[in-house]
Prior knowledge:
There is one protein chain. The protein is of the alpha/beta class. It has 2 domains: 1-30; 32-152, Glutaredoxin, CATH 3.40.30. Helices cover 36% and strands 26% of the residues. It has helices spanning 2-29, 43-54, 67-74, 99-106, and strands at 33-38, 58-63, 85-88, 91-95, 111-116, 135-141, 146-152. The longest helix has 28 residues, at 2-29. The radius of gyration is 21 Å and the shape is globular.
Amino acid sequence: MRNNSHRRIRALRLAAFVALFISSASHAAEPLSIDVHRDANCGCCKKWIQHLEASGLTVIDHVEANMSAIKRGLGISPELSSCHTATINGKFVEGHVPAEQIIAMSKRDDLLGIAVPGMPAGSPGMEVDGKHDAYKVIGLSKAGTDHVVAEYPEN
């Protein structure tokens, strides 16, 4: 009788472990979801969305009539501004930020968001005849300071 009780306990523990493992594995496999806000007539925004999707992000596309209001609502300064704005895990993404930087930023607690100001040639969505301008990804900290989180050189 005692052996059966131990077997049942071991079987229950094993079942619990397997359930936890499967749950963790399926949770880890879920793609990150990002909300993109853009103007209906912007072609580079659509190309940036394709870049995000090709990098494994799930994009929720919002066509907006007033992008300035979106940016103001998220606290994005004119110095960091670009054509489209996104949010992921409560943080903003402004402009043609590479997906790898978005994924890295989504795991950081010290940033409110990141931006690629302007529309630099060669950034994701701004691929133009092999031209690639140097540009920086700027991070805005919770303390209100900004700093360079990544640099992409000119080619």
